[in-house]
Amino acid sequence: MALSEQEQRALREIEQSLMADDPTFGASVTDAGFGQGGSLSIRGIAVIVIGLVMLVGGVALSQHSLWFVTLSILGFIVMLAGGVWMLKGKRGPGGGFGSPKKKSAPKPSGGFGGRMEDNFRRRFES
C-alpha cells in the first residue's frame, strides 16, 4: 500500500530531523537497511529451506530407518543456524543489542522533536 504525499513528506521530515539530531545513529539505521544485506538474506533463506527439506525428508523416511531421525535433527539445526545467521546480519563495530552505548548530553528540545512533544502535550491539556 502506497503512502500519500502528506505521509511521505512527514516521513522525510522525521528522517531529516533524525539525521540532524544524531548523525551517527541516523547513519547506522540507514546502513542497516534491507538493500545492503540482500544477498546475505537470500543465502539465509536458502539455508533455512535446505534445513526444512532435510527435516521433512528425515521425518518422512524415519519409518524405514532410524538414521533418518538424525537427518531430521540435523535439518532442524541447519534451519536454526540459518535463522541466526539472518538475524545476526552485517553489523558494524558498534552494532548489536549487547554493545555499550554512549550517553550523550540531553539536547534542547527545539527542533522537530520539540514541536511534536509540544503538540502531544497540547492535546491532553485541552
TrEMBL record:
Record's compositionally biased regions (Basic and acidic residues): 115-126
Record keywords: Membrane, Transmembrane, Transmembrane helix
Transmembrane segments: 40-60, 66-87
Domain of life: Bacteria
Residue span of region Disordered: 93-126
Database matches in InterPro entries: DUF3040 (IPR021401)
Name of the protein: DUF3040 domain-containing protein
Keyword Transmembrane tagged: yes
Organism expressing this protein natively: Corynebacterium vitaeruminis DSM 20294
Keyword Ribonucleoprotein tagged: no
